[in-house]
Amino acid sequence: MNIRMFYPILNILSCIILLFVGWGFTRSNVTITENFIEYTIHPVGIFAWLVLIVFVFMLLFIVQRHNKQNPDKKIKAFSIKPPEYNEDDEMYQYATMSATKKVYTFLTWALPMILALLLLPIPFSKFSIFVIVVCIIIVQNLIFYFEMKKFKE
């Protein structure tokens, strides 16, 4: 298994978990009295946080195992440069460039369209805006994954 090819799928899974975290937190209740603030989180949010913590540890385990098996191709689980960038040789550099170009093109169209959508007099809840952002992240990871998959085959 090439972890660099699998990483966008892991990003998508983490976004789906974060979607449930967001759903749980937007369904929470806050009660403010004179001397006390009570914050009740929906059980789905609490469960999703626990799943997210398990997911992060699983990701760390996968990355650590990859780094032990491939000491010359180590990756960092959390860094500014996404670990899915595969620049081992010129072909992968080209593939990464092509994939990031397609993601950038998607974002240059998607973000202004979403801003225009949010300007319409449609009542958006906190969660619906959260869903829109998560959908953008999922689509950009799918674009990157399928573009890189073309070069892998």
Question: How is the topology of this model organized?
Answer:
Layout: H1 3-26, E1 29-32, E2 37-40, H2 43-69, H3 90-119, H4 126-152
Antiparallel strand pairs: 1-2
Helix pairs in contact: 1-2, 1-4, 3-4
Report on the structure:
The chain has four helices and two strands, in the order αββααα. The chain is mainly α and about 150 residues long. It has one domain (about 5-150). Strands 1-2 form a two-stranded antiparallel ribbon. The longest helix has 30 residues, at about 90-120. The mean pLDDT is about 85.
In short:
This protein is mainly alpha-helical and 153 residues long.
Structure characteristics:
mainly alpha; two-stranded antiparallel sheet; 2 strands; 4 helices; 153 residues; 71% helix
What class do helices, strands and sheet pairing give?
mainly alpha
Largest sheet: 2 strands, antiparallel
Strand order of the largest sheet: 1-2
The total of beta strands comes to 2
Binned, the helix content reads: over 70%
Give the overall silhouette.
Answer: flat
Question: Rg to the nearest angstrom?
Answer: 19 Å
Beta-strand share of residues: 5-15%
Total number of domains: 1
Contiguous uncertain segments of 5+ residues: none
Taking the alpha carbons of the first and last residues, their distance comes to 14 Å
Nearest-integer average pLDDT: 84
Order of helices and strands: HEEHHH
Q: Note the total helix count.
A: 4
Keywords: Membrane, Transmembrane, Transmembrane helix
Transmembrane segments: 7-26, 46-63, 103-121, 127-146
